[in-house]
Design a protein that fits this description.
Layout: H1 7-11, H2 18-40, H3 44-55, E1 59-60, H4 61-68, H5 72-84, E2 88-92, E3 100-104, H6 106-115, H7 118-126, H8 132-151
Antiparallel strand pairs: 1-3, 2-3
Helix pairs in contact: 2-7
Length: about 160
């Protein structure tokens, strides 16, 4: 009995791997986003932290870390830098002092106005139509969620 090897494994090239497509798309996306982030004076993790706080203020460090897929060892120094920049405050939760709550300052909220219009830059750079862009974004989010579940043995 002969073992059949899938044709793909015999001819697979780097460009055939979805993981590489996602990885390299992320790098390319970062290059497009860099001027936007430079204009705001933020790194990408700082930017998504601010966006998350625009959506829901008073989040705990733990909750924010989980939402952003960042380790707390990454979050704490980043939050300290954002606090030093005047964009947020960190305070102990009055009901449970083990938790630290993160809140935007007025300066942190005003970044939102500076950031308006930047979404159009990335949509245009993607080459996708305004209708295609959210469809792809939802598909990527579903892929991510499924991969997270699979990594936890839930699929």
């Amino acid at each position: 009995m002969t073992e059949k090897t899938p044709v793909r494994s015999k001819t697979a090239k780097l460009a055939d791997f979805m993981c590489f497509s996602i990885y390299s798309a992320n790098l390319a996306y970062s290059r497009v986003y860099k001027p936007v982030l430079d204009a705001l004076g933020l790194t990408y993790p700082q930017y998504i932290t601010i966006i998350s706080l625009w959506e829901e203020d008073q989040q705990t460090v733990k909750g924010l870390s989980e939402k952003l897929f960042l380790e707390s060892s990454t979050m704490t120094p980043m939050l300290k830098r954002l606090e030093a920049m005047g964009y947020l405050t960190r305070t102990r939760d009055s009901e449970d002092e083990r938790n630290v709550r993160i809140s935007l300052t007025d300066a942190g909220r005003s970044l939102r106005e500076k950031g308006f219009g930047f979404g159009e830059i990335t949509v245009k750079a993607s080459g996708l139509t305004p209708e295609e862009f959210p469809i792809l974004q939802k598909a990527i989010a579903r892929l991510r969620d499924n991969l997270v579940k699979a990594s936890k043995g839930e699929l």
